[in-house]
Amino acid sequence: MRSVIFDLDGTLADTSADLIAAANACLRSLGREELDPARDAETAFRGGRAMLRAGGLSEDEVEGQYPLLLDRYGAALCVETRLYPGAMEAVARLSGAGYAVGICTNKPEALAEALLVALGVRDAFGALVGADTLPVRKPDPAPLTEAVRRLGGDPRRTCLVGDTDTDRHTAAAAGVPSILVEFGPSGDRVKALLPEATIGHFDALFDVVKALDL
Questions:
Q1: In the chain, what are the domain boundaries?
Q2: Number of neighbours of residue 15 by Cβ within 10 angstroms
Q3: Cys-Cys with 102: which of 67, 136, 147, 181 at CB 3.0–4.6 Å?
């Protein structure tokens, strides 16, 4: 079976404002300068630890604050978060054409599950693999391969839709194509990562996936 695997943060949904709010709560508690939701959106999509480091915390402070950040984020993970325009229409079109669809994210699995439920879209995806589902996370290819396995798909007939170099490297390590979105904070700079394709809107995804001939 052919499959399309999606990253979550920065790909299906703009979660940056809620992520930054959680990080800023930690930074405020330590009297540090807070992150800017616009300027630091790209950092938010690289994870909680990246945001804390951007706030000037030492590695010991990062490790101490990271569980608190997750707790704060989990308590308010869908306040400002929104799906990108056309995301679920694209997912539905792929599913209708016989592609299995799943998610492979570096967000902890329980938080990813809760967010998808809060957005009302969990049932659209046949598999979800998070940062802690396996002992390794992206860019290791194992989470991607596991997502495909859970869908009953062929790991040679899949692609990964993402937004960062992490997704690009994950797909390359798995030996499958990557499609990077240009509507996140990185914009069209993702083209420099040399993915197999990029899209400026989800309306283009179906035709791009079809052209890959999975």
A1: 3-14+81-212, 16-75
A2: 25
A3: 147
